[in-house]
Amino acid sequence: MKQFQKGSYNLDYSTYQLSGLVVLRVLIGWHFLYEGVAKLLNPYWSSAAYLLDSKWLLSGLAETIVSDPVLLSISDYVNMWGLTLVGASLLLGLFSQYTALIGMGFVILYYLFAPPFLGLEFSKPGEGSYLIVNKNLIEACALWVIYSFPTSHIIGLDRFFSNPESN
After folding, report:
1. Are 147 and 104 in contact (CB under 8 A)?
2. Phi, psi torsion values for 129, nearest 5 degrees
3. Would you list the domain boundaries of the chain?
4. DSSP states of 55-117 as a string?
5. pLDDT tens for residues 129-156?
6. What pTM was estimated for this model as a whole?
7. Which of 26, 78, 145, 151 has the most CB atoms around it within 10 Å of its CB?
């Protein structure tokens, strides 16, 4: 068991635990980065279709966003660049504790715009059969783990910005 210290953190991670947490951070980072870049590279991508299919609590907000070209443009821009930057940050281990929280915000919003609840039918078929728990909820929980067990100051670019006496 190796002991890592960062500021007020005193972390006892085994190599196995540290490896698992870093792999989780990198995989989620890749997923976010790929989703963001794919949207950036597609000149026809817009969040409008997803928002128009919204059900439940945020459907009114979705309709408002889609009906206003400025709000829709902001939504598209935030999605494309937000996913890209969060993904790159997690992948590189740069400010990853903060971006884990931002990433959680993204996937929780995606979950709330299209929750997998009984009685809600969406025009786009899902990737599987879900009831309450879907990939967005799981990814939000995984990002909570990344936030709760920081690794970027051990394996990541954050280690270059940390106090050398606390490593």
Report:
1. yes
2. -105, 115
3. 17-166
4. -GGGHHHHHHHHH-HHHHHHHHHHHHHHHHHHHHHHHHTSSHHHHHHHHHHHHHHHHHHS---
5. 677 888 999 999 999 999 998 888 888 8
6. 0.83
7. 151
